[in-house]
Specification:
Radius of gyration: 14 Å
InterPro entries: CsaA, NA-bd_OB-fold, tRNA-bd_dom, Tyrosine-tRNA_ligase_regulator
Number of strands: 9
Number of domains: 1
CATH architecture: Beta Barrel
Structural class: mainly beta
CATH topology: OB fold (Dihydrolipoamide Acetyltransferase, E2P)
CATH superfamily: Nucleic acid-binding proteins
Protein name: tRNA-binding protein
Largest sheet: 5 strands, antiparallel
GO molecular function: tRNA binding
Organism: Aureimonas ureilytica
Distance between the termini: 24 Å
Pfam families: tRNA_bind
């Protein structure tokens, strides 16, 4: 595995197709003090096919709770769930590190239907 600044080894389009990245709308966001690193506990609605999923997101520096509900985000929905403290995180919410290494959520330029897949 390479560090975040080094490009990864090339993959095939078939490899890319295995990663299921979908858009969803955050329906609830709350503090997650039990997480090892500062995080928020999110519930994200991915539409009728996938439903609502939980995510632990380390976005506490660049995002506030009051701005999150109603915001569309992208997440990997086909990783196995991961136990984080008392919560089972079901999806990986996507973001990028800023110049200081704090996570900034990946953003859409226009609203799209929940559950839409990245391609």
């Amino acid at each position: 595995m390479s560090d975040a600044s080094t490009p990864s080894a090339p993959i095939t389009y078939g490899d890319f197709e295995k990663v299921d990245i979908r858009v969803g709308t955050i329906v609830s966001a709350e503090p997650f003090p039990e997480a090892r690193k500062p995080a928020f506990r999110l519930v994200i609605d991915f539409g009728p096919e996938i439903g609502q999923k939980k995510s632990s997101a380390q976005i506490t520096v660049r995002h506030s709770l009051d701005e999150l509900v109603g915001r569309q985000v992208m997440a990997v929905v086909n990783f196995p769930p991961r136990q984080i403290g008392p919560m089972r995180s079901e999806v990986l919410t996507l973001g990028f590190p800023d110049a200081e290494g704090h996570v900034v959520l990946a953003a859409l330029s226009h609203p799209v239907p929940n559950g839409g897949r990245l391609f």
